[in-house]
User: Fold this.
Amino acid sequence: MSGNTGKPRTVRQLLTPSLFVKSIYDVPPDWLKARGITSIITDLDNTLVPWRDYTVAEELADWFDSLHRRGYKTLILSNARPAPTIVELSRKLNTKLIVGAKKPVSCFFRRALELLGSKPHETCVIGDQLFTDVLGGNLVGCHTVLVERIGHKEFVGTKIMRLLERLVRKRIGTT
Ligand SMILES: [Mg+2]
Assistant:
């Protein structure tokens, strides 16, 4: 576990999520509460929706609603190119949005924290990729949750990274 009592130091720690669950709907409310988490940064493609399918399912809208009702601040942080359909999705979900990011580069996570007005230790990053979401979140000291990707369609570069990811996940035990 990467923990958040200090900056993670080893590569292994940086690539280890604080929690691994099947989907966003499986993140236990008690787990968030116990860690004093008040803000959630989520990835978009294959975490919230299938790759490049920006329609809002009712279950997804309900998940964001429930977070907001419980006082959580939310933000979608995506490496996807800006598109009106993504802006529309974030509007429907009533959440903040940063697109065109370059995760795992730290400045994009810091910008997200700034927009949320949150500190890393009270923020959880949720995503389906080790080398962008988990690594990036851990580098700035956030809690990190790895989820299984929703679909199998993805960017060709991502597919290549998956091969490496599979090797690392075997070592870390999140397979
Ligand atoms: Mg993703």
Remarks:
- The CA atoms of residues 12 and 46 lie 24 Å apart.
- The chain has seven helices and six strands.
